[in-house]
Specification:
Elements: H1 5-12, E1 18-20, E2 26-28, E3 34-42, H2 48-54, E4 61-66, E5 74-76, H3 78-86, E6 89-98, H4 101-104, E7 110-116, E8 128-129, E9 133-135, E10 138-140, E11 145-149, E12 152-156
Parallel strand pairs: 3-4, 4-6, 5-6, 6-7
Antiparallel strand pairs: 1-12, 2-7, 3-8, 3-11, 9-10, 11-12
Length: about 160
Amino acid sequence: MTFTTAHLCDIHSKENYFQIAESLFITYGANTVFSGQITTLKTFEDNVLVKTVLEEKVQNRVLVIDGGGSHRCALIDYQLATLALDNGWQGIVVYGCIRDSALINTLPIGIRALHTHPLKSHKKDHGDRDLLVSFAGVNFKKDNFLYADMDGIIVSETMLS
């Protein structure tokens, strides 16, 4: 599917319910445009569950991670981004930080994060999956649709075309 978020806003703003994320995120990865159905995680400074989810083979899915907005460590690194790519994930949105950004920028995957941080996360195995998570002015729900490009992120309950 080829799209721009601006065009989706223009054609669906009156007929379809969607949310637009606040412009908090930096673009990482070689794919600046991505979309898919949402899988959610809520975790704080711990990426054990992130790895577990990214090990799953998927089609047309985007992982949305509520990392509590932490700027004290990274939840995604090059190894996890490669794992996501190998298993069919279209993109990752992290309300938190990533590391290995120069390497991640060479991968054909889309990633949005608040910033970078060189420290890896803790390994306490805490977190929740497929819950409603809210950040950047958006409620992210499992199986809703996420569209991201250089202009922003849109979330819709239904597929937009």
